[in-house]
Amino acid sequence: MLVYKTKVNLIKRINNIMQPSFSLGFVPTMGALHKGHLSLVKSALANNNFVVVSIFVNPTQFDNSSDLNKYPRSLAKDIKILETISKDNILIYAPKVEDLYGSKVKSENFNFSGLELSMEGNSRPGHFDGVGTIVKRLLQIVSPNKAYFGEKDFQQLLIIRKMVDSEGLSVNIIGCPTEREPNGLAMSSRNGRLSSKEYREAAMIYEILQTVKHKFSSEDIPSTYDWVLKRFNNNSLFELDYFQILDTESLGPVKEKKPNKKYRAFIAAYIGDVRLIDNIDLN
Ligand code: AMP
Question: What is the pTM of this model?
Answer without folding.
Answer: 0.97
